[in-house]
Amino acid sequence: MSQTLAPQPAQAPPPPVKAGLGLAALTALVVGSMIGSGIFALPSQMAGSAAPGPLVIGWIITGVGMLMLAFVFQSLATRKPGVDGGVYGYARAGFGDYVGFTAAFGYWVSAWVGNVAYLVLLFSTLGYFVDAFAGGATAPAIIGASIVLWIVHALTLRGIKTAAAVNVVVTIAKVVPILVFVAIAAVGFKAGLFTADIWGHATQIDGVPLGDTMSQVKNMMLVTVWVFIGIEGASVYSRRAARRENVGRATLLGFAGVLALLLLVTLLSYGLMAQAKLAGVPDPSMAGVLEQQVGSWGAAFISIGLAISLLGALIAWVLLCVEILRLPALEGVLPTALARENAHGAPANALWLTNVCVQAMLLWTLANESTYLNLILLATSLILLPYLWSAAYQVLLAVRGETYESSHGRARDLVVGVVALVYAGWLVYAGGWQYLLVAAVFYLAGTVLFVWARRERKLPVFTTAEWVAFAVVTVTAVAAIALLATGNLAVL
């Protein structure tokens, strides 16, 4: 099967990029793409799902699963230095051009839809200071979001390294408010509140019991599905790394730092307020919790921090958007026009296509009042399948023994790959079937670009196995369209 799906031999590869991104810039891409808005809403979301005991169990399971994915990206970056583009490159190398295309296209759509969500939430947050922005989907808010979008667009047109350098600064700036929250929460932490009902047997949220321990763990893990997206940020930029080994290091450093912040924010919050009360704090709940500790300046401080965080996440994801289009275009999986760079080395066509889509979706949210949560759920569902392909590729390499001539590390990598694959599969399941159906619609629409690219290079469009994959996508997309038309499926 894998031999049938092997990608077509690539034409002469482009010359390597001489000046690359260093460890700090790559790590900032990981942290910047992972820390967006999720961490600022975690205190109430977690309190509504699980008591402290089940919460710790859930974080251990989640941490191990995501650590295995981080190890997958680290291992593949080292063992397959010739494969660029992270989730796209691994899907293509392991399972063929069309699967690689779906990984790249799904990742791209996920990234720009996520940017719409960030812009909506950014101006919803600024509504704390300016009433006209309240809710994030008002006309003044959409106008403001559009201005911010095109400022970031202009910045990125000045070059990837310039935008990446700005991202480092913004990433540092948005971590500071989180560290301040952690410091204040540590001082105000009350062990008695934390242990009052540590397993959640007596606690009720809006009159509803939390359930048994395993139910709480499952509910808590459904929340964590959304907070680790972006762990692959450095691997997507592998081609622009100054040193290849820094890709794996940046992935692990970014993951470890973000996980530590997530644990501290959630666990310390349980020692500041009773769980039922904490669950009722409106988002961004970190602001409400800090306000209860230090007064109104705390809410304003966290709101500013969230605004900076969202701006940083926007910059990081714009960078990932254009890179995930550029590399497939260089390799004949997307039209070559998307790989063209301007005088500053920025893929201008890919950037224009991305931000025109963001602008169109912003106008859609104004007309349809799409919620931030719906946008995030759609964006996340589109990015989970590429994770699964990456884990499957590591399992494939280990089973074949490819790159393991001395057998050193093969058994370890097989175990890591299998655990990561199971966890990625669970993430896809937890994301919800309705979003997978809508993802198929995007894949089917995007296949036009794949066909264009293959015709452009005078290559066969599909192999036999890829025709089967395309048929599955088509049938699923048709079913989704039928359900959408009858009102039985709605995601926006």
TrEMBL record:
One of its GO terms (cellular component) is plasma membrane. It is found in: Cell membrane. The keyword Protein transport does not apply. Pfam families: AA_permease_2. The chain crosses the membrane at residues 21-43, 55-77, 98-121, 133-152, 164-189, 220-238, 250-274, 294-320, 350-367, 373-399, 411-429, 435-453, 465-485. Probable amino-acid or metabolite transport protein. This is Arginine-ornithine antiporter. The lineage of its organism: Bacteria, Bacillati, Actinomycetota, Actinomycetes, Mycobacteriales.
